[in-house]
């Protein structure tokens, strides 16, 4: 492990999209590339943490020195997160978890016909909220991707999910998703910090340092 302020700590991150099957060949997913979560995993590793990355499907290489567990659905992500968070001190939810899954995925490929078709969907579990619930002493950091009222929505999630910190970014109109740069507004109970537009690697270094700082200052 690298030397640094997070030495001796285990950080677990979720990253990337989830995929919710419709049938054996189709799924529902989203535009998350996983880049922000992967960059943050590398940054926490460089700050001395042992890092486990629980990743939905991405095209990214595993950062050096980071352990990676691949998952597909939100249900998989939940199971591995609850398991791996058991011996962690820091948990970061950077995954873009699908909010809904298909009620009854078909066993065989669905055949088309001329009629319209609809899919019945159910709500997925909230992974980060479940992890917080199970492990009250964990330092939990969430992300929020918003198209409007960034601070208000991010602070709402910070409180509702009982997070220690939330990193919020504007999305839509070509911002953040599947790009190499990003800007973040970070909120916690007693304060906030702006991390202005920069490469995701640079933003991840600043966010990693801020996480180390706030972890050190936790009650
Ligand atoms: O509510 P919203 O999806 O905007 O919250 C975003 C945060 O919650 C992110 O940290 C994301 O990883 C996490 N999340 C989760 N499980 C869900 C939905 C979101 O862990 N089902």
UniProtKB/TrEMBL annotation:
Query: Phosphopantothenate--cysteine ligase: where is this region?
Result: 11-219
GO BP terms, alphabetized: coenzyme A biosynthetic process; pantothenate catabolic process
UniProt keywords, alphabetically: Decarboxylase, Flavoprotein, FMN, Ligase, Lyase, Magnesium, Metal-binding, Multifunctional enzyme
GO cellular-component terms in the record? Answer: phosphopantothenoylcysteine decarboxylase complex
Q: How is the cofactor bound?
A: Binds 1 FMN per subunit.
Q: Which cofactor does it need?
A: Mg(2+); FMN
What positions does the domain DNA/pantothenate metabolism flavoprotein C-terminal occupy?
6-213
Catalytic activity field: N-[(R)-4-phosphopantothenoyl]-L-cysteine + H(+) = (R)-4'-phosphopantetheine + CO2; (R)-4'-phosphopantothenate + L-cysteine + CTP = N-[(R)-4-phosphopantothenoyl]-L-cysteine + CMP + diphosphate + H(+)
**Record-level Gene Ontology MF annotations:** FMN binding; metal ion binding; phosphopantothenate--cysteine ligase activity; phosphopantothenoylcysteine decarboxylase activity
Q: In which pathway does it act?
A: Cofactor biosynthesis; coenzyme A biosynthesis; CoA from (R)-pantothenate: step 3/5; Cofactor biosynthesis; coenzyme A biosynthesis; CoA from (R)-pantothenate: step 2/5
**Protein EC:** 4.1.1.36, 6.3.2.5
Q: Which residues bind CTP?
A: 99, 109, 125-128, 143, 157, 161
> According to its UniProt entry, what is the function of this protein?
Catalyzes two steps in the biosynthesis of coenzyme A. In the first step cysteine is conjugated to 4'-phosphopantothenate to form 4-phosphopantothenoylcysteine, in the latter compound is decarboxylated to form 4'-phosphopantotheine. Catalyzes two sequential steps in the biosynthesis of coenzyme A. In the first step cysteine is conjugated to 4'-phosphopantothenate to form 4-phosphopantothenoylcysteine. In the second step the latter compound is decarboxylated to form 4'-phosphopantotheine.
Membership in a protein family: In the N-terminal section; belongs to the HFCD (homo-oligomeric flavin containing Cys decarboxylase) superfamily.
- Protein name (record): Coenzyme A biosynthesis bifunctional protein CoaBC
The lineage is: Bacteria, Pseudomonadati, Pseudomonadota, Gammaproteobacteria, Nevskiales
Recorded name of the encoding gene: coaBC
């Amino acid at each position: 492990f690298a030397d640094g302020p997070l030495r001796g700590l285990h950080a677990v991150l979720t990253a990337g999209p989830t995929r919710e099957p419709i049938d054996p060949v189709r799924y529902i997913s989203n535009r998350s590339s996983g880049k922000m979560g992967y960059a943050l995993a590398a940054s926490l590793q460089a700050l001395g943490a042992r890092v486990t990355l629980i990743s939905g499907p991405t095209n990214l290489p595993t950062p050096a020195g980071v352990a990676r567990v691949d998952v597909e659905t939100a249900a998989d992500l939940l199971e591995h997160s609850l398991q791996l968070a058991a011996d962690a001190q820091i948990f970061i939810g950077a995954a873009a978890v699908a909010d809904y899954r298909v009620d009854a995925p078909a066993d065989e490929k669905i055949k088309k016909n001329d009629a319209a078709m609809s899919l019945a969907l159910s709500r997925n579990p909230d992974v980060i909220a479940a992890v917080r619930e199970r492990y009250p002493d964990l330092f939990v950091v969430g992300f929020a991707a918003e198209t409007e009222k960034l601070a208000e929505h991010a602070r709402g999630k910070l409180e509702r999910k009982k997070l220690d910190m939330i990193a919020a970014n504007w999305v839509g109109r070509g911002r953040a998703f599947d790009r190499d740069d990003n800007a973040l507004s970070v909120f916690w109970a007693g304060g906030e910090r702006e991390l202005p537009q920069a490469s995701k690697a640079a933003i991840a270094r600043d966010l990693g340092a801020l996480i180390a700082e706030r972890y050190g200052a936790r009650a």
